[in-house]
Amino acid sequence: MPELPEVETVRDGLARHVLGRRVEAVEVRRDSAVRRQAGAVPEFAGRLTGRTLSAAVRRGKFLWLLLDEPAVDGPIGVPGEALQAHLGMSGQLLVRGTATPPVEHPHLRARLHLGPTADAGPVVLDFVDQRTFGHLTVVDLVPTADGAPGGYGSAVAAVPEPVAHIARDLLDPALDRAVLVARLRARRTDLKRALLDQTLVSGIGNIYADEALWRARLHYARPTDSLSGAGVGAVLDAARDVMTEALRAGGTSFDALYVNVNGSSGYFDRSLAVYGQEGRPCGRCGAVVVREPFMNRSSFRCPRCQRRPRRSPERRTTAHPATRRT
DNA sequence: CCCGGATCCTGCTGGC
DNA sequence: TGCCAGCAGGATCCGG
User: Fold this and answer.
1) pLDDT (0 to 100) of residue A211
2) CATH top-level class for A177-301?
3) End-to-end CA distance of chain A, in Å?
4) pLDDT in tens, A75-94
5) Is A169 within 7 A of strand C by CB distance?
6) Is the pLDDT at A127 greater than 80, yes or no?
7) Which nucleotide is at minimal CA–C1' distance from A199?
8) How far is CA A272 from CA A61, A108, A205, A233, A249, in A?
9) pLDDT, mean of residues A210-239
10) CA A222, C1' B3: Å apart?
11) Across A25-48, average pLDDT
């Protein structure tokens, strides 16, 4: 499942293979692939055709390609537009030269025909997505609230409008760690739920959440407001470290659903400590890793290293109307 | 505003 | 051998 390291691997591949290319033609093979697009397929293709891809940018699991040469008579003062992609659970972006006939993948959802660069011939960029949770959209950019670059891969201080509410990720130099720690501790919820909340900190999915919790020796149901600042810092460091290591290894791959932009799978999954390791010994203490349902998903943990907290988060009672501010 | 559960979707797997 | 329930889990929507 693509999380931050996998999406970054894709972003890097796109940066090396599609920038400076003009979109010559757009094929949408399945309309729902652009379901987030106002104006549906015609607007998607219309806003994309003829544009040049100028940067590949990522924030958390969101990915976008900046579009040069804005549409004629576009609104003044708008920072620009982007082709935004989210890979969902199973999305892939595959780049292929045109020397050989394009592969008609059964889960091909959209195909962009991209023109040549000074150095290389035209290519085809395929969006393939078996489980169809991913999508593509052409969107307007909005300025970042803090004036810092919108994400990794470009100095432009703007993000796609649908990404504006997504928090910065743990590898973002502009992330305000102190604010993040304070916000996380102010939550009244389970720690893993907070780690998965993309509006709090982005890029972490089910796999790296479990790995980070194991490294920090914390239980997924640990109440966020029972953690010290140091404890929160430790689990955030663990998440940052495990994602950095996965990135170095080329991203995690499961069941061949994820491959990088050139079609080669990552191999970091061999290094996972707990995720998918039910019944196998904890690499630290030897206790048998367990799988438990949590948030309608699976959570994997070591029952000895990651003890269940004594109390669950106290349920927040509805605020009294008299104390509620508008 | 904050929280948490339901929902979307497809294909594979395992039990009977 | 065939059928079907269960499972995988991103983001978003909506009720409380």
Assistant:
1) 93
2) mainly alpha
3) 40
4) 555 579 999 999 888 888 88
5) no
6) yes
7) C11
8) 20, 30, 14, 21, 12
9) 94
10) 16
11) 90
DSSP A101: P
Task: Tell me the CB-side half-sphere exposure of residue A93, using CA atoms within 13 A.
Answer: 30
pTM attached to this predicted model: 0.87
**Where are chain A's structural domains?**
4-163, 177-301
- A4, two tokens: 């931050």
Q: How far is CA A213 from the centre of its chain?
A: 19
Token readout for A194 is 């907070």
Among candidates A295, A272, A296, A59, which has minimal Cα distance to A191? Answer: A295
Q: DSSP secondary structure string, A105-162? A: -TTEEEEEEE---SSS--EEEEEEESS---EEEEEEEEE-TTSS-SBBTB---EEEGG
In sequence order, the 6+-apart residues with CB closer than 8 A to the CB of A233 are: A177, A181
Classify domain A4-163 at the CATH superfamily level.
MutM-like, N-terminal (3.20.190.10)
Q: Which nucleotide is nearest to A132 if distance is taken from CA to C1'?
A: B9
What is the average per-residue pLDDT within A47-54?
94
Locate A252 and state its tokens: 């995690």
Which residues of A carry out catalysis? 2-3, 61, 297
* DSSP per position, A233-296: HHHHHHHHHHHHHHHHTT----TTT---TTS----GGGG-SSTT-TTSBPTTT-PBPEEEEETT
Whether the CB of A296 is less than 7 Å away from nucleic strand C comes out as: yes
Nucleotide nearest to A318 (CA to C1'): C16
Position A252 scores a pLDDT of 53
